[in-house]
Amino acid sequence: MNAMTDLSRRGFLITVTAAGAAFAMNGPAEAADVYAPTIWYTIDRNGQVVVHIIRAEMGQHVGTAIARIVADELEADWAKTTFLHVDTDPKWGLMVTGGSWSVWQSYPLYSQAAAAGRIALVEAGAKLLGVPAASCTARNGAVVAGSKSIGYGEIVAKGELRSFTADELAKVPVKKAVDRRLIGKAAPAQDIPAKTNGKGVYGIDAKVPGMVYARPVLPPTRYGCKVASLDEAEAKKVPGYLRTIALDDPSDNVTGWVMVYGESWVAADRAAQALKVTWTTPPEAKVSEADLQARARALIADKSKGGLVVEDPGVDAAFKAAKTTLEQTYTTATALHFQMEPVNALAFEKDGIFEVHTGNQWQSLVLPWLATALGRKEETIVLRTHLLGGGFGRRLNGDYAVGAALASKAIGGKPVKMVLARADDSRFDSPRSPSVQTVRMAFGEGGRVTAMEQHVCAGWPTEAMAPFFMPKGANGVAFDPFAVNGANHWYNVGAHRVRAVGNDLANKTFRPGWLRSVGPGFTNWALESFIDEAAAEAKVDPVEFRLRMLDAAGKNAGSAPNAVGGARRQAAVVRRLAAKAGWGKALPKNTGLGIATSFGQERDMPTWTGCAARVAVDPATGAVKVEKLTLVVDCGTVVSPDGALAQMEGAALWGLSLALHEGTAFENGQPKDLNLDSYTPLRMSGVPDVEVEFMPSTEAPVGLGEPATTVVGPAIGNAIYRAVGARVRDLPIRPEAVKAAMRKA
Fold first, then answer.
1. Do 334 and 287 form a contact (C-beta atoms < 8 A)?
2. Does the pLDDT value for residue 13 go beyond 80?
3. For strand 353-358 and strand 495-502, is the pairing parallel, antiparallel, or unpaired?
4. Count of beta carbons in the 10 Å neighbourhood of residue 702
5. I need a labelling partner for 115 at 20 to 30 A (CA). Which of 95, 306, 580, 613 fits?
6. What confidence score (pLDDT) does residue 160 get?
7. Does one domain contain both 574 and 445?
8. Percent of the chain, pLDDT > 90?
9. How far apart are alpha carbons 365 and 624 in whole angstroms?
10. C-alpha closest to that of 223 among 643, 21, 484, 504
């Protein structure tokens, strides 16, 4: 998209190394139709501000949030501020939307960019008004000096707008929290109308003249299958059928895919069902969920495996000297994304550029795959940006873009619109891997916690798709941080050990993926369930037990800029949550209140979150009804209140869905449940009351898309125990498991 006007004559003067992106500043004598203080936004002669968004929009209203950041710092007129989701270009640097990173990463970048523009506009406006710059202020899209004022649009048309050196830009001050006028204030999300009136264009809506349609016929497993034979006899009887091609993929993203082309998608779909394909298959074509879990248990038992994420001195000694110890094992099942829009892409070559139109969460990851698959340079490939009909991490893996591009290349670069059927999407989803975790705690005199260790085994999505993101542990072994985050908690437990173990069988059988909340979705299930069990072992109230360990001592003290206050802020969340939810008050029989807390996604961007779940258990059936979820969160500065609330509510309900309803099993190398008849997420009838409170804060804004997902499951599990004395250790929590646990209680 070409909202950025004539940038080449301005040049890129400033490089922002953290984002890998460049700032472009106007020369001092230039008056342009569009002023681009940086690459991140433009201002035209009418004072219209257009903010350039590199994050994917999948329902979280990220454009509105980032535009508010710019408009506040720039002192723009919100009524004249819009945003544009941009296509791939090296100047944008890293393009990824996931991990609850968008606002956290964007805030300092866009704030400083906007502050630079405001300074330049004030200086130029002062000259035009004939007053000293020190006597001017910027407000609501104008520079004001007493009774005089001049709008940003007029300044752009007439003014001489300064440039900044890299050193100057780095020293540009941003507003103090007390001076913010838009951040934290309610405003309608600008992208809602297009989503509700039909004007929004999703990947599945993309079209160009002359395109044909395609549906892939997928092999039995993700890896290792080769086409042995094709029989088109029945497919050729389908009206509108065009041809079938077995794809050759040098990037190994769509190995074994057979592409069926048609004049319409209906024709391609029916022909794909009629086509007969045989493959040679690897041993993983017989893998089951039980095999995956058994492999995980064996790997955890082998202490030589995995990377040490946390390794404090004295863990083994503390366990040897302990008065008592506690050990438990927790599991989670395979979970699918089931985003409403099946993955799809439109691909074609035009004027030497290979275009791929789709909705994607990690363009910077997919471009190298496309270059390898197509055998061409990245700069000759462009990913065109469209809305996502749900992402939740599935569209971080852009394998479908590769399939569409190869389908187009195979027929000479002509436009091909490829759409996966729902069952295809499920079979070749990038699921959240099943997991097994063993957690241990050592107690000394008086029930004091002296040591703890957590061993986490699951498939590693980062190893499968982005191994360059994998650090090395204390033992020199690389690990996937996104499959263990959350276990490196902020509790003071004495000597602490966290070991991350990759399930090699999982990674051979399927491509593990990042699903909303990623690792903390299962690490926190084990951690916060275990903390309640440890509290019972120590004969201490579960809230008090947590508060004792959230002492903000040592490494848990926190640090600037993102974790100021450390565990002290998590403790404040727990206290407020307990008071708000009525902790300790009497409840009806078979009803319980459970609590869980987390720091969200990552230690260097903690979102302090707590959940109290009130549940009623039917002792006859084991059925669990969640009556209310109460959540308290300290996410630092809240940029867009409505968007923040929606993120918390959506994440909490996703966590509830994963806790009680969602989960499948691998059978013969594939997920068993391929559609929403047997894979049954939370329905509207099961939605409880949800109450969310944001702790007031002016600290750095951190992530909100996922943290609430991580605390709901363990809060429900802990509530079940308090209701009927049944401890469940496997997700999802099925009624029969609750009944079995009641019999053991």
1. no
2. no
3. unpaired
4. 28
5. 95
6. 87
7. yes
8. 93
9. 41
10. 504
Between the CA of residue 622 and those of 161, 262, 281, 332, 742, what are the distances in Å? 69, 50, 41, 19, 8
> What's the domain range around 38?
7-191
Read off the tokens for 1.
């998209």
**What percent of the residues of the chain are helix, what percent strand, and what percent coil, each to the nearest 5?**
35, 25, 40
- Tell me the torsion sign for CA atoms 95, 100, 102, 106: negative
As given in the structure block, the two tokens for residue 525 are 């299930």
- H helix and E strand count, the chain: 19, 30
Q: Are residue 144 and residue 259 in the same domain, yes or no?
A: no
- For residue 496, the SS3 value is strand
Token readout for 247 is: 């794809």
Q: What is the pLDDT of residue 270?
A: 98
What is the end-to-end Cα distance of the chain in Å, rounded? 62
On whether residue 163 sits in a domain, the answer given is yes
Exposed / middle / buried, residue 308 (Cβ in 10 Å: 0-12, 13-18, 19+): middle
pLDDT for the residue 32: 64
The β-bridge relationship of strands 41-44 and 241-246 is: unpaired
326 and 352 belong to one structural domain: no
Same domain, 716 and 695: yes
Domain boundary among 135, 161, 191: 191
Domain count, the chain: 3
pLDDT digit string, tens, across residues 690-732:
999 999 999 999 999 999 999 999 999 999 999 999 999 999 9
CA distance 478 to 472: 4
Sheet holding 381-385, edge to edge: 241-246, 258-262, 212-217, 416-419, 344-350, 353-358, 381-385
| Cα separation values, 430 from 336, 363, 433, 464, 479, Å | 7, 17, 9, 10, 19
Identify the domain boundary among 139, 167, 191.
191
Instruction: Give the count of alpha carbons within 13 A of 366, CB side only.
Output: 34
Element (H, E) at 328: strand 324-332
Residue 295, Cβ neighbours under 10 Å: how many?
20
CB 331 within 8 A of CB 729: yes
349 forms beta bridges with 354
Distance separating alpha carbons of residues 359 and 207, to the nearest angstrom = 13
pLDDT for position 649: 98
Q: What residues form DSSP beta bridges with 142?
A: 139, 151
Torsion of CA 553, 559, 562, 563, to 10 degrees: 0
Task: Supply the DSSP string of 160-224, one letter for each residue.
Answer: ------HHHHHTPPPPPGGG-SSTTS----TTHHHHHSS---BGGG---TT-EEEEEEPPSSSSS
CB atoms closer than 10 angstroms to residue 498 = 27
Burial degree of 8 (CB within 10 A; 0-12, 13-18, 19+):
exposed
Torsion of CA 719, 720, 726, 728, to 10 degrees: -90
CB-based contacts of 272: which residues, under 8 Å, 6+ apart?
215, 216, 217, 235, 260, 421
Q: Does residue 522 sit in the same domain as residue 659?
A: yes
Q: Which amino acid is at 678?
A: S
Are 601 and 485 spatial neighbours (Cβ–Cβ below 8 Å)? yes
Look at residues 384, 390, 407 and name the one whose alpha carbon lies nearest to residue 342. 390
Whichever domain contains 642, its CATH number is 3.30.365.10
* Strand 226-231 versus strand 276-280 pairing type: antiparallel
